[in-house]
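Protocol step 4 of 5: obtain the predicted structure for the target chain.
Materials: sequence only (see below). No template structures provided, no constraints applied. The aim of this step is simply to have a reference model before the mutagenesis design in step 5. Sequence pasted as it appears in the construct record:
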Amino acid sequence: MKITFLGACRMVTGSQYLLEQDNVRLLVDCGMIQGEQFTEDKNYDDFAFDPTQVAAVVITHAHIDHCGRIPRLVREGFRGKIISSHATLDLAYLMLEDSAHVIQMDAEAAGYPPLYVQEDVQEAATLFHGVNYHEPMQVGPFTIELWDAGHILGSAFIRITAGGKRIVFSGDLGNPPVPLLKPTEALPATDYVVMESTYGSTTHEPARERKLLLRSAIYETVTMQGTLLIPAFALERTQELLFELNDLVEHKDIPPVPIFIDSPLAIKATRIYPKYNHWFNKETQYLIAKGDDVFKFNGLKFTSSSAESRDILRVKAPKVILAGSGMMQGGRVRYHAKNYLSDFRNQVLIVGYQVKGSLGRQLLDKAKHVVIDGDGVDVHAKVRAIGAYSAHADQPKLLAWLGSAPQLPQRMWLTHGEEDKANNLAKLLALSSSP
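Step 4 output (structure tokens):
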């Protein structure tokens, strides 16, 4: 079995790996590279293989940096199966539709042809093939199995067996315990592992602290009569925060305050979640069985239209706004950032990974002045972060996942991490495996 690393090397985006056995080609993930702009120029580069000669693509989960170039692959002739969990394929369709819309706007503004269009997304959907966790699937000489990664709804790490060898691709691993989802499953027996290292040198706050920190941010915002702006990824982060906010509101642990979900994509994704509530953890299933709608509570408003989004500005503070995108590289959060960053009474709460070059990363790095869509904005709002809300495993949890295998793999590769993070984890792994 031959593996070629085609993406997510010394960076956190663009996941893509090519496996070859007996003249059959299998692609694991087909993600977009994301950074200072949504559609990075590198995404226009030719694939390092002939798309018409790939038998299947296996997708770990629905985030764009893992599935975002699939429509381009289809546009260039791929007609094999697109394999993933049923939930991943439902969510991926929403994500790719939204991606095509953003790409179209980027292309029109820059005066170049789009990476792909909506028709390519629709064609890709005809190739979707959903499988259950632990349900082996055969593609030529490859046996494919999915385990629950606990990262977002439907996410999986994948074991592929061919030529008497087994290799596991971690995709993105979860950060248990989390609202909604079950914990990441143990690593099964394998010869090789390709593992993410996004937080390879980081330890998140204890899980029990994250709700307290969220509560504290809301209380402080109410006291200051300000606005709390939370850049939130449409998948998982928004739904997890809704779950936490639902609990805080119902137990009167925060003062009454209007809370806006200002992301059409997040609203659509949230409507998919109840379809898969059998994949939720026991606590969430128990609440649902009691009749609790964990995504609905007093004071919550979903703002789907652009007019509704703009109207939030006229709502008197205090207020809380969850808006996409999660790294502040696009979406409605940029409009809100323009309006709220310059006021010291306001806060920005970072709850997810921020790639280098993104607006979110600039704020996290304590920038005092930023440029948003050509306009300069002075930053006087308080910026804080809650690492425990990250959907990625931190260093201790990455090590624990590796340690959950019946025996250590013969070899590991670290991807999906900035170089210093991956190197830090690699050194630790080398030490731990020494005699």
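Step 4 remarks: Residues 86-110 form the longest helix (25 residues). The chain has a mean pLDDT of 93.
Proceed to step 5.
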